[in-house]
Every structure is written in structure tokens, then in C-alpha cells.
Amino acid sequence: MKYLSVLFILLFALVGCEEAPKAEPQVSESEEVTSHDEWSKNATIYEVNVRQHTPEGTLNAFTEDLPRIKDMGIKILWLMPIHPIGELNRKGGKGSYYSIQDYKGVNAEFGTMEDFKALVEKAHEMDMKVILDWVANHTSFDNVWAADHKDYYNLDSLGNLQMPEGTDWSDVADLNYESSEMRAAMIDAMQYWIEEANIDGYRCDVAGFVPVDFWDAARDSLEAIKPDVFMLAEWEDPEHHLKAFDMSYAWEFLHVMTGIAKGEKEIKAIDEYMAKQDTLFPDDAYRMYFTTNHDENSWNGTVMERYGLEGHKTFAVLAYTINGMPLLYSGQEAGMDEALKFFEKDTIQWGNYELQDFYTKLLKLNRDNKALWNGEYGGDFERIKTNADDQVYAYQRQKGDDLVMVVLNFSEETVNTEFENLPEGSMESLFGMVNYADLKGGVKLAPFGYHVFYGSL
């Protein structure tokens, strides 16, 4: 797989910004990979930006929104860091979530530990899991460790804390993974949240900046407390799937989609990506697919800006049906066309939840139809040929008797589309735009038009 270099990624250098790793060797089929708990096979994930999700910006206010999110078909809640934010060298008025002052504390602006425990308990009652964003690569300069444990950090030539090398992350200090004491303290802090708040796992920030053997040891320690712990790496490295992580970011696919949207890539880039995916990653690896997240939204533009006012839904259909677990970011269901301020309070304007029905249909299909399940639980992928393959991307996924077919027009033109190898049988239209039987005579696809059909053979 063609990976972006760390040097290139650091051009985006802001705490929590997107990362992609160096190329890694392929994973042999004979090597053991992380085993997933049964509950995760059809899981979907929602990224929670607590500060911006409600006018109050609190854990309690967010908890009130759980029934709506549950009803959309969400199974995992990923909360951006909830810890106290450093004040020394702080960026902006509120600071970055990713500048951690105390790994065992709760940001007072968000609420209390009891508030967080109540959120987790409520989510569990609703059959949802909760994972916390974990920042293991760096802390704030005024972290509780900094005064008494400078040996936990990589120091400059004068013995002072310093930001991670090659970045402009001036509000955070780089941790020293040569220190066994620091590693032990970090794992202890990760165990704390599972023991005290009964969380279900972690999304691990810039996971590739931290040694793999640390993550492997952390997984062992966390599984000893919670055997079905779930781990998500903000990285794209096959080695992470051998032991430590259930799921990793499909960063490259995001870049494929934005390249197609900008006219810089051809549709065949999707097929090339799929072939690389099959080669590099084990079948059992969960990959997370998305059109945006907190980094993309704040730093690289809204989905409307990057994919177009018409195209953003077409690319969402692709991301939610192509392979792996779909991610929805706070505010996407509102049709959010605003780049949320990262270091300030900037409440999401929910309006009438313009796209909630759209995303609910996709999320529930992903949850209920085995063809779209995660990793090896999901269905085989097959491209469906059309008379306009340079503009239209059509494919099917099948698992046993479950079948999903998707048709996407990635052009700004209306395309009269004919199909060469349509799946047999009767299927329902997810969005109710056209009957499946009508496809046999061809279909007129509007600019950035899309159709999704599902059924059982």
C-alpha cells in the first residue's frame, strides 16, 4: 500500500491531526491476529465531540442525546479526550483535547467522574459500548508527571521538556518510551478507566508514534480486566492488528475519495486500493471508513467543501458500504457545513437534523445486513461492469444469502447507465428512488446520483 511519509503528514501538524504510517511488511496468513469479540462483528461507531455537541458542552448534556444516537444504529461511542487540558503553552482559549494534564482526571468544564460513569452506565443499558480517546505519545507541559518524573520525557540538550520532534505541537511534551517506569504508569492509567468507569476500550491517538510492543503489553493488561476490550489505532499499520488493535483507520481510502472528488484520481483508484488492502491486511482486520472526523472537519474543510454539495452523500454511501466499520462524526447528521473551531467553544448547529434519515438508513443497513459486516464477518466484494465505468462505480457485496448492491455516479453529468452482470433475485431500494427490476433496462443517474439495494437470495 502506498503510504504517506511521516514527514508529509507533519505538514498537518496539530495535536490529534491525521497520520499515516511508513510502509510495513505484509502480514502472513499464518501469523496470529487479534481476535474480536462477537458483539463487534456488526458494530458502527460515532465520534463524540463533547465540547461542541451541545450548548452546555458537558457530559450530562450529551447523555441526553444517547437515545437519538442509539436509534440511528450506532453501537460504539468514541469520546474525544475528556481529561483536564494543560494551561502551560495552551493553544487558543480552551486548548486542545490532546494536551493531557492528568490521565486520571475529568475536565471540569465537561463535568465530573460521576457524570462520566453515569454516561457509560446509560450507554451500556442501551447496548452501546464506550471507548475513550487515549493520548499516549505526549502530555501537556504541566501534566502531573512533569514535576516529579522528568525522566518520563524526552528532554532537550538543556534538560527541558520538548514537543515531539518534527512537529509544531507546541502545547505538548514528548514522552520517553525508553522509560519502563513511564510505560508502567501509562498502562496503569489505561487500566484505571476500565476499572473505575467500566469503559470498553480506547481509540489511540497517533498510534504509530508509540512503539508496537507497548501497545501489545497494554492490550494484555487491559484484557486481564476486560476480556472483550476494543482497541482502535489512529494509524494504518498491519502490524498493529497482530495483537494490540481490533481496528485501524482507512486513511488512504479517505485520500482516494478526496482525490476522485477533486478530479485528481480516476475511479479505478478504488479498485487499486481494494487490491492493496487485500494484500497488506489480514482478513480479520477491522478497518474504519469515514468521510470526515474531527481532524478533517477542523483542518481540511467540511464534507461539502471537499466532496461537493451534491457529492458528499455519494462518497458517504461509498464509505459506508465498501468495506469495514463506518464512522459518523458529531454533526454530520445535521448536514454540518462548518469547520468547527478546535481550540474554542463552537457549538454544532443541529437545526432539523437534515441528514439524520440518510445516515440512519446506511448505519442500520450496515448493522443488519451481513454483507456489510466488519472484517471477515462481512461479504465478498465484486465490481459490476457498466457501460460507463469511467464515471459510474457499481459493486455488490454478498455474505451467504445476504446481498447489497451499490451504484454511484462520480461525475457532474447525467449518465445513462447499463449493467452487464446484475445480481439475480429481488431486492429493496434503501432510498426508494427506483425499483431494482428497472435496472435491467438501464437507469438514468443524475450527477452524483446513487442507489443502494439490499435483499436475501
Question: Could you characterize the architecture of this molecule?
Answer:
The relative contact order is 0.13. The strands form 4 sheets. This protein has an 8-stranded parallel beta barrel, surrounded by 4 helices. Strand 2, helix 5 and strand 3 (129-134) form a beta-alpha-beta unit. Helix 6 (180-197) packs parallel to helix 7. The chain has helices at residues 6-9, 50-53, 59-63, 66-71, 113-125, 180-197, 212-225, 251-261, 268-280, 294-299, 303-307, 311-321, 356-368; strands spanning 45-48, 76-79, 129-134, 138-140, 172-174, 201-204, 230-233, 247-249, 286-289, 325-329, 380-384, 392-399, 402-409, 415-417, 428-429, 443-445, 450-456. The chain is built from 13 helices and 17 strands. It is α/β, with parallel strands linked by helices and 457 residues long.
In terms of topology, how is this protein built?
Layout: H1 6-9, E1 45-48, H2 50-53, H3 59-63, H4 66-71, E2 76-79, H5 113-125, E3 129-134, E4 138-140, E5 172-174, H6 180-197, E6 201-204, H7 212-225, E7 230-233, E8 247-249, H8 251-261, H9 268-280, E9 286-289, H10 294-299, H11 303-307, H12 311-321, E10 325-329, H13 356-368, E11 380-384, E12 392-399, E13 402-409, E14 415-417, E15 428-429, E16 443-445, E17 450-456
Parallel strand pairs: 1-2, 1-10, 2-3, 3-6, 6-7, 7-8, 8-9, 9-10
Antiparallel strand pairs: 4-5, 11-12, 12-13, 13-17, 14-16, 15-17
